[in-house]
Amino acid sequence: MTTRTRTDLDSIPAYVPGKNFPGAIKLASNETTSSPLPGVQDAIAAAVTSANRYPDNGATALIDALAASLNVPRENIATGCGSVSLCQELTHATCKDGDEVVYAWRSFEAYPVVTKVAGAVPVQVPLTADYGHDLDAMLAAITDRTRLVFVCNPNNPTGRSLGRAELERFLDAVPDHVVVALDEAYFEYNRTDADGITLLPGRPNVVVLRTFSKAYGLAGIRVGYAVADPSIITALGKVHIPFSVNTLAQVAAIASLEASDELLARTDGVIAERERVRDALIAAGYDVPQTAANFVYLPLEERSGAFGAASAEAGVLVRPYGDDGVRVTIGDAHENDAFLAFATKDEARTLAGAKLRA
Ligand code: PMP
Asked: How high is the pLDDT of residue 215?
């Protein structure tokens, strides 16, 4: 007998994580290269002794710590098992069958998945010619069925960031009943004036998503948070899988917030490396859009797959996206050098050939 799972699942793309193999330099998942700080490791180790108990489902201490660090009331904060689970909770909290979710494309590849899993319809709005959000086209794509809009800022995988003024204009033009998620997974690397949390006052339909996976270096621990009006926070709580933010994640996030000066100082080094890598690629003839995140993007179109495979062959894992482009995470200097050694060779430049500037 065939078991009766949903037939529409056949049309849902499986989430594709970055690849890995032993000894490879992994520049495919936008992780940080350093292990958690010793104090964070100690907090995790200490919490292991209570792993027989369920976590605090309300993440009370973590939410208190976030409220203090962000200077927002605790009623405005929810936590999730990574911000990807908050993306999913948002689709479940806003959409019923046939409702629409608008987002730019190409963007974070979980958006189509969480949209379809919720039974909603993805409305993908092409990026501008320079790989940023086309906010006017996104506004025009909003219909009576639209329940949720994702704005990934900076955009994964292209790295482009919107500025505060354009974001404000956009948010003011979106109908009040449509929820807008500002996905700021890479916020800590963004040196533009875009800061979603400062845009929240007076905008109860806006939710900011952030994560401890990137600049805070806890990708393997799984914890992110949402900041929004209490009505959205309450709705997220209704669809939340109980206890999905585990105890180790909660204590690790608190300890990381306590060390935020040290952790955030590291982002300056990543940014310096990002600009070094981007300049070197541009000098080698590649088109590399400006980026406000911890990665660079090469819009190699139909050559992306072959370029990604050749880079893997050279021992450096990067992330090709169909016929759109290749995303390269900024790692340690020697890792970035290994990628540059590959990418600046004539062989790789020829592979990317048609897309290289004269
Ligand atoms: N949003 C964006 C734009 C991302 O790139 C990612 C991670 N790839 C996430 C959300 C999810 O991060 P996490 O679930 O690890 O918090």
From this structure: 96
Rounded Cα–Cα distance for residues 280 and 283 (Å): 5
Measured between alpha carbons, how far is 172 from 201 in angstroms, rounded to an integer?
12
The residue nearest atom 13 of ligand 1, judged by CA position, is 82
pLDDT tier at 353 (50, 70, 90 boundaries)?
confident
Separation of CA 186 and ligand 1 centre (Å): 8
Centre of ligand 1 to C-alpha 183, Å, is 8
Ligand 1 cavity residues, CB under 6 Å: 30, 82-84, 108, 152, 156, 183, 185, 211, 213, 219, 224
- The span from the CA of 38 to the CA of 43, in Å, is 9
pLDDT of 358 above 60: no
**From the CB of residue 6, how many other CB atoms can be counted at a distance below 10 Å?**
10
pLDDT tens digits along 211-228: 999 999 999 999 999 999
Distance 152 CA to ligand 1 centre (A): 10
